Amino acid sequence: MAGLNEDAQWIILMGFIVSFSLFFLAIVLNQSMVVGQTTAENVLDFPKNDIRDLRAEIINSVYYENVENPTIHQDIISLALARQGAIVSYSNYTGNYTYINIHYNNGVTVYDENWTSP
Q: Which among 110, 111, 108 is positioned nearest to 41, based on CA atoms?
């Protein structure tokens, strides 16, 4: 750059600054789009309806039917594993109130609930 006058050096320096700035902005925008995409995918991965259906079946079998049937308990666990790929466990205690502890884990989402009868 020794052979260039000061105006040419200034133009080349500004060109480098502008090109590095554009490159930096492109990287920042690319990363923000990746973050937005993964956030949206995580919202879609949450199995809200699966958990609601499973919760309703467990409460129905324990609270409303009031039957201690280990076959129903094992069927709920087996069906959740076969159809949804989720590990489900629940336990209940019946006294003055009915207490149910529900655990759901499909490898992405973990859901725990302690349900008490009204």
A: 108
